[in-house]
Amino acid sequence: MSELAITVIGRDRPGIVADVAEVLARLGANLTDSTMTRLRGHFAMTLICVGPAAADVEAALAPLAADGQLLATVRAVAPDGAAVPTGEPYVLAVHGADRMGIVAAMTRVLTDAGGNVTDLSTRLTGSLYVVVAEVDLPPGTFDEVAGRLALAAAELGVGVSLRPADTDLL
Amino acid sequence: MTTEYAGLAGWTPAALPVPGEVRPVVSAPDPVLSRPGPEVDPTSDEVVRLAADLIATMRVSPGCVGLAAPQVGVSAQVFAVDVTGHPKALTVHGTFVLCNARVVEAARWKSGREGCMSVPDLTGDVKRASRLVVEGLLPGTGASVRLVTDGFEARALQHEIDHCLGLLFLDRVAGAHAIYQRKVYQ
């Protein structure tokens, strides 16, 4: 069983998910984890599938991409099993006037502290830039990371908050 | 006619005449978790035994603050709750079991991240009322009670009542981007 990383991106229109999912289902490709979202009028799909060979999936998706409106890539990846937890979960939010380097500066602070970004979205609307990320931080580093993020944010002229993503187990 | 009590009217698990046995907890996608449970006769031996088993199973499960009948494989509107000692709890009614419970008033909705013993690998952001009034029947006597609660106990009650209706927190997540891989630390 090969594990495939598939990306599909193109001008948004109704039916992209149905079209791609149908192709995969016909091939017996089992869609496991995925995110599919609209980014400034483009629809972007990032999928992990298990089943057929990469070449078969590529060939099957080719007709969808034939009109030049969709770009699909397929490649085999090594299954790495369950993700190893690397720390305690936090939610990072940054917002302010758009400028170069906000994501770079903020994620560098996280990385230098041994943190790991597990999910991140950005949105630019008018001149407002927003970053929201799920971050794992090593235990005991919260205060230091929050301080460094605040410094980096001040240099960029943006606001930042970091709060625990604590879960209530019921 | 059944008397209606405010609060639990002094009910404690000691009122159950049978000792509880620990039952195995089932996980999604077990279909019992997605099936609305039928109402029960709270005075029946079967329901009294189930009530005791839910409490026993809840007590041996680390961090467990509530357990509904479908989670032990029984499709029925019965659940146990105990949020005693939880740091987020405000009003606390101790350990109790309710049958055929209904939310009758809900206010002050707040978003929070929830996890569930029956969905061990995921968590999700779910809005729940932080002010809550619930009516239900006590196992054994069948007495009708009305609980007024808030905060964490309110969240736990809504989560368990949902289980009885065949709903998981996954049915209530705030959006496509509001489920998360659960992280477990040792």
Assembly state: heterodimer
First-last Cα distance of chain A: 36 Å
Q: Please outline the major beta sheet of chain A.
A: 4 strands, antiparallel
Spatial order of the strands forming the largest sheet of chain A? 2-3-1-4
The level 1 CATH classification of chain B is Alpha Beta
Q: What would CATH call the architecture of the largest domain in chain A?
A: 2-Layer Sandwich
- H/I helix tally of chain B: 2
The structural domain count of chain A equals 2
Q: Could you spell the SSE succession of chain B in H and E letters?
A: EHEEEEEHE
What is the number of beta strands of chain A?
9
Indicate the low-confidence ranges of chain A by residue numbers. Answer: none
Element pattern of chain A in H and E: EHEEHEEHEEHEE
GO biological process, one term (chain B): translation
Protein name (chain B): Peptide deformylase
Catalytic activity (chain B): N-terminal N-formyl-L-methionyl-[peptide] + H2O = N-terminal L-methionyl-[peptide] + formate
GO molecular function, one term (chain B): peptide deformylase activity
Q: Main traits of this protein?
A:
A: 170 residues; alpha+beta; Alpha-Beta Plaits; four-stranded antiparallel β-sheet; 29% helix; globular; B: 186 residues; Peptide Deformylase; seven-stranded mixed β-sheet; 2 helices; 7 strands; 32% strand
Polypeptide structure, described:
The complex is a heterodimer of chains A (170) and B (186). With 170 residues, chain A is α+β, with helices and mostly antiparallel strands. Chain A folds into 2 domains: 76 residues, 2-Layer Sandwich (Alpha-Beta Plaits), CATH 3.30.70.260; 77 residues, Alpha-Beta Plaits (2-Layer Sandwich). Chain A contains 4 helices and 9 strands. Chain A has a 4-stranded antiparallel beta sheet with strand order 2-3-1-4, covered by helices on one side. In chain A, strands 6-7-5-8 form a 4-stranded antiparallel beta sheet, covered by helices on one side. In chain A, strand 6 and strand 7 form a beta hairpin. In chain A, helix 1 runs antiparallel to helix 2 and helix 3 packs antiparallel against helix 4. Chain A starts with a strand and ends with a strand. The relative contact order of chain A is 0.17. Chain B has 2 helices and 7 strands, in the order E-H-E-E-E-E-E-H-E. Chain B is 16% helix and 32% strand. In chain B, strands 1, 2, 3, 4, 5, 6 and 7 form a 7-stranded mixed beta sheet that branches. By secondary structure, chain B is α+β, with helices and mostly antiparallel strands. The radius of gyration of chain B is 15 Å and the shape is globular. The interface between A and B is medium-sized, with 18 and 26 residues. Chain A: InterPro entries: ACT-like_dom_sf, ACT_dom, UPF0237/GcvR_regulator.
